[in-house]
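Now for my pick.
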Amino acid sequence: MKTLKHWLLAATAAVACSAQAQDIKISYNGDISGSPSAESGQIGVLGITAAVDDINKRGGVLGRKLTFLVRDDLGQPPKSIQNMTDLIDRERVAVVFGPTNSGNALAWKHIANQKKMPVLVSSASSTAITEPAGNNPNYLFRISMVDRDQAAALVAYAAKSPQSKKIGFFVETTGYGQAGLKDMEQIAALHGIKPAVIEKFDARDTDMTSQLGKAKAAGVDTLVVWAQAAPLGHLVRSMEKIDYMPRVLTTWAASFSGFPQVAGNKLMEWPVFLTTSSEAKSPAAKSLLERIGPKLANPSMFWAATQAYDTVLVWAAAAEQAKSLDGEAVRRALENLQQPVDGLVKQYTQPFSAANHEGLQAQDYHWSRWQGGVVVDFKDPVLDAMTPADFKK
C-alpha cells in the first residue's frame, strides 16, 4: 500500500510540475493510506489518472489540458477539511473528486456548497452525501454505490428468493453498521418482511458464534450482512465453526482484500455481494485493466477504477455543455446533461437532475462472488426475474 501511495503522489506531482498556466486543475481529496478504505482510494486515483490521460489526448476540456492534483486525507475529517479548503482557495481547482470515507464528505459538504465547488463522489457511499442541503443547491454528485440502494438490492433479492424463508440481519456496531441496519429495516418493511433475528457485533470481534447460534435456533436461512471486510471474514469463519452455513448477502465490502485474507480460499466463495463492475467486459474496460492492472494489489476492486474513471468523463461533458468551469454553470449542466456519456460502468443518459444526484441506481449494480481467487459475476433465476419495481426504497 505504501509503495502504491508513493507512486500515486509522485506521478501526480510530476504532472502538476509540468502543467502550463492555462491548464485546468482538477483534484482528488480522499484516503489513500490511512484506513482500510484507502484501498478503494488508491484504485480510484488510478482510474482518474487514466481518464485525465485519455481526455488530454483528445484535446482536453474546453480546449485546455487537465492537471490532476492528489491530496491524501489519511481518513481523517480535519485533514480532509484542510485539503478541501486548500484545493478550492489556493489551488483554484475546477472540480474535486472523492472522498473515500463518507464521514469526511459529510464534514466538508457545507464548504463545497458554500463555495459552489462541484464534487463528484467516486467511492464514499453514505446516503446523506447527496441529500439536499436545505434550500440551497447541493454541489455533490455521485457515481458509486449508495448505502440505501445497496440495502434495497440486498433486501429485494431476499424478498424475491423462494429459498429465503427466514431472514436475519447481521450488522457491526459502528456508525456504518447502524446506518445500514436502519436502511435495511425500513426497506424490509416496504416488502412486508420482519427479520427473524437482528444481531450485532463489534467490528473488532473475531468470534460471532453466539450471535450465529441465535440465528440458527430461529431457523434463519438467509443472512443480510452489513459489515466491513475483516469482520465479514470472521463471520463466515464463525459460521463454519458451528456448521451453520446460511446464504449470505452483503455489500461491496466483500471485494476488499481484508475479506479473503481473513476468510481463506474456501469460505471467501460463500457470500454473494454487490459491486458496480464484476469483470472487465467492454473493450474500453479491458483496455483500462491492461493499463492499470500491474499496479492493482487487489484486482477484485477494479470497480473502484471504473466508476472513478466515469466521474471524470461525466464532469468533462458537463463543463463542455456549460462552456464554462464556473461551479454553478457546471452544476446546472450536470443536472441536465443533454448528450449521453459512454462510461465504463454504463452509458449515462441524463444521470442527474435537480432532485437526484445519484448516477447509479440499485438496478445498475452487479451481483458478484469470489471464485478461484477472483471476483466474477453471480447469476441465478432470482436475478433474472427481478425488475426495477422490486428495488423498493
Q: What stands out?
A: The chain has two domains: 2-145+279-360, 148-275+366-390. Residues 21 and 64 are 10 Å apart (CA to CA). The chain has a mean pLDDT of 93.
